[in-house]
């Protein structure tokens, strides 16, 4: 088997996690690191054994032998950095939120398709074994017809106006940073909603601190979703069906199993699932499988899914009155 050479564009906090987990993917290595700071790129490259480090994103395009680029810059930069790589013919795995808004997502997708270059959103949750298992159970009708889904994601952080989470210029706020997880899980299990209602609490910089979302579907199902950067929540997801309910075990965005409670059985059934490392390697391995097959997008996380989510995020931001500079 051939070795896949990964490059990382933006060696921040999440990039360290991705780089660590590449060790779990056979025939894979970190090949290059790009940062606005050459010293930072060199330090990151030395930590993970990458032979190439460059001090600008443009310089990454000149590094030979790159098979895929993982983009881990702030949300506000995903559009420009994805276009940079795609137009150079480099396959892209781009961190969520995919872009800042749906118009940017459409442009990035168009560039990938026009150039015949692979592109996927880095929604690592999709590729956990526990997610495959939960989808299998739901699609088999094990819990009956899904009537309601509840999901939350919250942590508490100090208010720093210039920090990534609070800065409107960096597309800050709870919604685009972590609210995408509850929204993603609802879209994965229930599809596109027929009705969307959202409310939020703004921070001092105008981005959302809390965001609560209610969704209704043509099937008759509903969902309640919540994100916050002001409190620690359970990071829990439960699907309630007509025959029972299903809970993703652990923090639902990185689950280690499924808890199944059927209403005609006294005891719940816990189904453990593999979870190696932090879990970022599952998406990296999937990208490599797609590249090996000559695919231009993932059959499990297609570009249409990411575009639909960005459109939902735009709708929610309109309802809560959140606009970013330049929009």
Automatic annotation (TrEMBL):
Domain of life: Bacteria
Family affiliation: Belongs to the Gfo/Idh/MocA family.
Organism, as annotated: Hymenobacter setariae
Pfam annotation, one family: GFO_IDH_MocA_C3
Name by which UniProt lists this protein: Gfo/Idh/MocA family oxidoreductase
SUPFAM superfamilies: Glyceraldehyde-3-phosphate dehydrogenase-like, C-terminal domain, NAD(P)-binding Rossmann-fold domains
Keywords of this entry: Oxidoreductase
Coiled coil regions, renumbered to chain: none
All residue ranges annotated as the GFO/IDH/MocA-like oxidoreductase domain in the record: 133-246
Residues covered by the Gfo/Idh/MocA-like oxidoreductase N-terminal domain: 5-122
Gene Ontology terms for molecular function: nucleotide binding; oxidoreductase activity
């Amino acid at each position: 088997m051939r070795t896949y050479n990964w490059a990382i564009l933006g060696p921040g906090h999440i990039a360290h996690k991705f780089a660590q987990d590449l060790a779990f993917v056979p025939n894979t290595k970190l090949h290059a690191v790009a940062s606005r700071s050459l010293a930072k790129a060199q330090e990151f490259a030395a930590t993970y054994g990458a032979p190439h480090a460059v001090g600008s994103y443009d310089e990454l395009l000149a590094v030979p032998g790159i098979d895929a680029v993982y983009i881990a810059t702030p949300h506000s930069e995903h559009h420009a950095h994805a276009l940079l790589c795609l137009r150079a013919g480099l396959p892209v795995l781009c961190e969520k939120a995919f872009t800042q808004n749906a118009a940017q997502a459409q442009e990035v997708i168009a560039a990938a398709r026009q150039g015949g270059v692979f592109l996927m959103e880095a929604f690592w949750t999709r590729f956990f074994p526990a997610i495959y298992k939960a989808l299998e159970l739901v699609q088999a009708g094990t819990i009956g017809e899904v009537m309601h889904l509840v999901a939350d994601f919250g942590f508490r952080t100090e208010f720093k106006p210039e920090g990534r989470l609070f800065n409107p210029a960096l597309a800050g706020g709870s919604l685009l940073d972590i609210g995408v997880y509850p929204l993603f899980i609802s879209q994965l299990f229930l599809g596109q909603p027929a009705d969307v209602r959202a409310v939020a609490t703004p921070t001092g910089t105008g981005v959302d601190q809390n965001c609560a979302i209610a969704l209704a579907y043509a099937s008759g199902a509903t969902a309640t979703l919540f994100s916050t950067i002001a409190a620690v929540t359970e990071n829990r997801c439960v699907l309630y069906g007509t025959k029972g309910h299903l809970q993703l075990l652990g923090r639902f965005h990185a689950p280690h199993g499924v808890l199944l409670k059927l209403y005609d059985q006294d005891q719940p059934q816990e189904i453990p699932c593999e979870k190696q490392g932090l879990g970022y390697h599952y998406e990296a391995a999937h990208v490599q499988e797609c590249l090996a097959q000559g695919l231009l997008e993932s059959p499990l996380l297609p570009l249409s899914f990411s575009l639909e989510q960005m459109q939902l995020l735009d709708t929610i931001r309109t309802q809560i009155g959140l606009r970013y500079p330049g929009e």
